[in-house]
Structure formats: C-alpha cells, structure tokens
C-alpha cells in the first residue's frame, strides 16, 4: 500500500477545488439574480415609458373606432328602413295601378261585349227579316 501522507495532498487539493467550485456556483447564482433584477427593472422602465403611452393611444383609437362603427351601423339601419319603406310604397302603388287598370279594362271589355251583343242582335234581326 502507499503512504497515507501522500494521499492527503490530493485530498486537500480536491477539497479546495470543491470549495472554489461551490463559491463559483454561489457567485453565478448571485450574478444571475442581479442580472434578473436589472432586466426586470429595465422591462418595467420600458413599459412605463414606451408601452403605457402607446396602449393609451391605442385605447383612444379603439374608442373612436367603436363610435364610428356604431354610427355607421345606425345609419345603415336607417338606410335599410328607408329602402324597405320605399319598396313597400312602390308595391302599394303598383297594386293600386294594377287594380285601376283592371277596372278600366273590365269596363272597356264590358262596353265591347255590349256593342258586340247589339251588333249580333241587329245582324240576327236583319237575317230573319
């Protein structure tokens, strides 16, 4: 077997290296936390300076767009009602014109039938006489 004293130096070296590694890991963790907190501060600052004013402007634009859309919908409904009313009045007028024309045609047809009946009666009398 080897000398026990010869093993103590490498064990001490490994112990020191392990302590250095632990300190390095702790240092990296602290550095990571510092970087994280700085990034979060930066993000909060950017949000406050840049995003919040833009969001307010976008919200104002959306309110305007909603108002314009509501007015356009209201006017479109008014136009639809006006068109439907006009179509109803045109249908009503067409029905009245049709009824008036049918009355005149019926009267004219009655007069023509009466004249025809008179002519037929006269021609029938002359042929028997």
Question: What does this protein look like?
Answer:
This protein is mainly alpha-helical and 129 residues long. Helices cover 97% and strands 0% of the residues. It is built from one helix and no strands. The longest helix has 125 residues, at 4-128. It is rod-shaped. The model has no long low-confidence stretch (mean pLDDT 89).
Quick summary:
The chain has 129 residues and is mainly alpha-helical.
Put simply, the count of helices is: 1
Question: Which regions have little confidence, pLDDT < 50, spanning 5+ residues?
Answer: none
**What do the pLDDT scores average to?**
89
Percent of residues in helical segments? Answer: over 70%
Question: Taking Cα atoms only, what radius of gyration do you get, to the nearest Å?
Answer: 52 Å
- Helix/strand class: mainly alpha
SSE sequence, one letter per element: H
Distance between the termini: 169 Å
How many strand elements?
A: 0
Secondary-structure blueprint:
Blueprint lengths: L3 H125 L1
List keywords for this structure.
129 residues, 1 helix, rod-shaped
């Amino acid at each position: 077997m080897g000398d026990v004293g010869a093993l103590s130096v490498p064990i001490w070296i490994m112990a020191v290296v392990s302590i250095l590694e632990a300190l390095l890991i702790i240092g990296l963790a602290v550095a990571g936390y510092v970087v994280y907190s700085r990034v979060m501060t930066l993000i909060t600052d950017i949000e406050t300076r840049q995003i919040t004013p833009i969001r307010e402007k976008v919200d104002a634009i959306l309110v305007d767009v909603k108002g314009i859309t509501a007015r356009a919908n209201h006017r479109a409904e008014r136009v639809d009602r006006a068109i439907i009313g006009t179509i109803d009045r045109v249908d009503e007028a067409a029905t009245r014109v049709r009824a008036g024309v049918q009355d005149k045609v019926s009267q004219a047809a009655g007069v023509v039938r009466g004249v025809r009946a008179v002519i037929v009666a006269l021609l029938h009398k002359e042929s028997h006489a």
